[in-house]
UniProtKB/TrEMBL annotation, chain A:
Start and end residues of each Tr-type G domain: 7-220
Pfam assignment, any one: GTP_EFTU
GO terms of biological process kind: sulfur compound metabolic process
Keyword terms: ATP-binding, GTP-binding, Nucleotide-binding, Nucleotidyltransferase, Transferase
Keyword Plastid: no
UniProt protein name: sulfate adenylyltransferase
Domain of life: Bacteria
GO molecular function, one term: GTP binding
Amino acid sequence: MDNYDNMELLRFTTAGSVDDGKSTLIGRLLYDSKSIFEDQYDAVRESSERRGEEGVNLALLTDGLKAEREQGITIDVAYRYFSTPKRKFIIADTPGHIQYTRNMVTGASTANVALILIDARRGVLEQTRRHAFIASLLQIPHLVVCINKMDLVDYSEETYEKIKQDFEEFSYKLNVNDVHFIPISALKGDNVVTKSENTPWYDGSTLLYYLENVHIGSDHNFIDCRFPVQYVVRPNSDDYHDYRGYAGRIAGGIFKKGDDVMLLPSGFTSKIKKIDTFDGEVDEAYPPMSVTLLLEDDLDLSRGDMIVRENNQPEVEQDLEIMVCWFADRPLQPRGKYAVLHTTKEVRCIVKEIRYKLDINTLHRNEEDKTIGMNDIARVVIRTTKPLYYDAYRKNRITGSVIFVDEGTNETVGAGMII
Amino acid sequence: MSYHLNHLKELESESIFIMREVAAQFERPVLMFSGGKDSILMVHLARKAFYPANIPFPLLHVDTGHNFPETIEYRDKLVEETGARLIVGSVQEAIDSGAIVEEKGYNASRNYLQTHVLLEELEKGKFDAALGGARRDEEKARAKERFFSHRDEFGQWDPKNQRPELWNLFNGKKNYGEHFRIFPISNWTELDVWMYLAMEGVELPSLYFAHERPVFAREGTLLADCEYIHKRPEEEAAVETRMVRCRTIGDMTCTGVWESEAKTIEDIIKEVSIARKTERGGRTDDKRSETAMEDRKKQGYF
C-alpha cells in the first residue's frame, strides 16, 4: 500500500470485431488480478445460469446496459478500473460493431495503449485494419495485438505466425512505432495474467506484465509551453481584491515562476508572477497539472486565449488541414458550417474543401467519391472565423485536436486531427 | 525533479479541469450534495478548482426526511465552513403536497421519490448543469456514463445515443430546457477516493467509522434500526447492537451497514483494499432488479 502514492495511471483501449471476446478478456483481467468483488461475480454467475450458459460469462461484467445483455454485444464505451501494485488502469472497452466505431475513436483519444483483438480462427478482418488504422491516426503510442481464442486453434504456432505476418503486412504502412503480439485465450486465461503452458513456443511476456511495464513517461509534450486559459478566477472578496488568476490545465511544456511569457492573440508579453494552487504556490507546472497562473502585468486575457513562450509559439492560422473522422448519420456537408471546439476555444468554421476520403482497408486516397458519412475518414480544409493557436496533432494531442459540433442538433459530429 | 504526477494527483487535475469547464460553459450549475464521501470529495475539489474564490455554484441536497442525523449535522457544518449556498429539496414536502405517493410495505423506500424532487428543484432553479459525484466503478450502468451527460427536457438519459467524448474537449451545447449531468470524478475508484481523502486530511462524517449501533439483517444486508423502516416481527426480535460502519451513505431505509472495526481513515483503506464485496453491495435500492440503476437513471435519477 505504500506503493499507492507512486502508482502511475495507464489508460488503454480495447478494440476488436464482434465476438472477438473483448469483454471476456477484460473480465479475465479483472478476475485474475482479483479486481472483481464477490458480489459482482455472484451476480454474473446467477445471470449466466439464468441464461442457461455454460460456465460464468465474464462478458456480463462489462456489458452493463439492458440491451447489451439481451443481445450479448457491447454497444457503448464502458469504462473499467483495476490496479496492481504498480499501476492503476483505466480501460475504455469499445464496441467492434461498424456502426459504433466512433466509440473506438473516443476511447483511443486519451489512451496510452491500444489493445487490438483478433479471433485466431478468423484472422485479420476489415475491422482489425480499421482499428489499427484508428490507433495510428489517433497516435496511440503503443499497440498490443492479442491473438485470441488460441484454445480453439489448438494453440497452433503456425496460425499465430500467419496472423502476425498478415497484420504486419498491413501495419508497416501505418504510423505506429511500437507493436507487440501476444497469443492468448481470454476464456481459458492463457498468457493474460499468467504464462501459459499451452504455448511453449511463445517466449514473450503476458498481457498484464506488458501493461504494467510499458514505458509511458514520455507520452506528454514537455517541450513546447502551451497554457490555454480555461477560466478567469476573480474573487470578489476583500482579502483578494486585486486577484486575477488564469486557471487552466497545462497542455504542453514546463512553466516556471518568473518565466517570460507571451499572450495570444494580443502578442503582449509579461512574466509569471505566481503559479497558484489551493495547496499553495508551486515553482513549476507541467502537463497534465491544473493550476492558476498570475501575471506581473494587468493585461486583457480570457477563456480561449493562450499563454506561450515568445521563442516557441504555436501555429496561428485560420485555414487548417485536418484529418476528420465523421460520427453523424448526416454526411459532412461541403461548404457546411460547424462549431469547432479546440482547447478552451470555440469558433465556427466552413468546410472549404474535401481533399479525399481514405479507404482504410487499402489506405487508398479516393478523390472521386467525396461523400463523407458515418465512420468515414477524410482529409479536409476548413476556414475558421478566428485564428486557432495550434500544434500539429503528432506534436501535441491536446493543442492539435478539434471536435465538430452541428449547430442545429448540438451533437458532436466529428473529430479532427490537425495536420 | 521528475515531471510526473502520481495517479491521485492526475485524477485530481482531471476533476478540477471538468469543474472549471462547467463554470465556464454553463450559466447556472449546481452541485448535487448527498453528504456521502463522494460528494464531500466533490466539494473539496470544487474549492480547489476556484481557489481563492468561493465555489461559484450552490449545493443542492435532496432531503428524503430519512437521513442519518449525522449527515445533516455534517452538511450544515460544511456549508458554514465553505460559505457555499445550500438549497434543500424536501421529499417530505412533496409527499405532503400530494405530488408523489409514499411506497408501502416492508421494503418501502424514498429512494425512487428523490428523482421527482431532484427534477423539480432543477427546474425551479433553472439549473442547466447538475454536478454529481457518481463514479463509473460503482455500478454497471454508471460505467457507461460520460463526464458531460446530456439530459432531455424530461431529464431522461438515453444511454444508446450518447455524445462521444474525445481528448479533453467537452461539448456542453444544448437546447433551452435541457440540462446536463456532470460527473467530474467518473474515473475514481472507491479506493482512490479514500486514499485521496486521507492524503488531503479531509474531515468525514462519523458514520464512516466503526461505531456501535442497533442493527438487524434483511436479505443478507445489515440495516440500521430506525423508525423509518417497517420491520417484520422476526426482524424486530433480531435487533442487536453491533460494531458497524457505512461504506456508502444514503437514505437510512436503503443503506446497509457493515461490521467493521475501522476507527481511522487508514483502517478504512486497509479494509477497502482487501474487501471482497462492492460498496453498493449493501444498497437494497440496487437489488430490486438486475438493471435497477439503469432504469432509474433513464428516468432522471442521479
